[in-house]
Amino acid sequence: MVQRTLKYYYQKARKEGWALPQFNFSCAEQLQGIVQAAVRLKAPLLVGTSEGDSGFLGKAQAVALVGAHRKETKIPIYLNFDHGKSLESVKEAIEAGYDAVHFDGSSYSFKESVGITKRVVALARKRRISVVEGEFAEIPGKHSTFHKGKAPKLGKDSFTDPKEANEFVEKTGVDSLAVLIGTVHGMYAENPRLDIERLREIKKHATCFMVLHGGSGTPPRDLLRAVKTGVVKVNISTELRGAFINTLRATLKEMPNEITPYKILPKSVEAVQKVAEHHLQFLGSANKI
Ligand code: 13P
């Protein structure tokens, strides 16, 4: 069967008012739990690796693992390169066979970011990449951290400007844009509320797909309102990492003398599966293949 593209599912999600979670992973066992969740819920699946994740696992290895799961499960699984910070790293991901790429130009000036993103789009169009994601407004917070305090208070003037969003999309030709409307990377005692009005304004001005980062810990009601307003993808990393590692810690405590990975790790795989199932169901991707 010819696999549908990720763009097909973005279009379907936007039309029908649901979203795909993007689950990040850095080891085969995390991916195993994520894939099990999607198979059980008959959900199209988007997974991702950041530069850190794929620096550990290897880009070719991530592509091969996803390919093996796709072949075995026969469900649509897509691999996105998350937060590529340079043209070189995104180019490597494209050449390794990723299905989608995200160039994070937030550390460059707007003009520089437009220039590099345009080159990423040109490279991607020559290959089988169906979605190029852009970002120019930095999403704050530290990935993969459970913070004890409140999230940093974000000024609305740091949120994505709708007119700038339009200019960015027109000039670069990106398919999707990571918008800053209040989400932060990582989990806090209290994650911030989202500015849905700003999201509506961005939607009015920019024609691309809108995606959110920092999905872990985001107030659920706000997340659903964002999806109903048109967000088609929500990135989740911290919650999955927490489920995997905290379960591993507990298992090691329970079995202090055990050294066999396949006896220690299944509980962590199961914990990841549970978290992934929750998000697939909550965002509405279940039964959408
Ligand atoms: P969280 O770690 O807050 O889930 O954010 C993940 C993310 O946005 C990856 O790009």
Automatic annotation (TrEMBL):
What name goes with this protein? Tagatose-bisphosphate aldolase
Lineage of this protein's species? Answer: Bacteria, Candidatus Wildermuthiibacteriota
GO molecular function terms attached to this record: aldehyde-lyase activity; zinc ion binding
* Alphabetical list of CDD domains matching this protein: TBP_aldolase_IIB (cd00947)
User: Which residues of this UniProt protein bind dihydroxyacetone phosphate?
Assistant: 186, 214-216, 235-238
**What residues sit in the active site?**
82
Q: Which cofactor does it need?
A: Zn(2+)
Q: What does the entry list as the binding residues for Zn(2+) 1?
A: 83, 185, 213
Query: Which source organism?
Result: Candidatus Wildermuthbacteria bacterium RIFCSPHIGHO2_01_FULL_49_22b
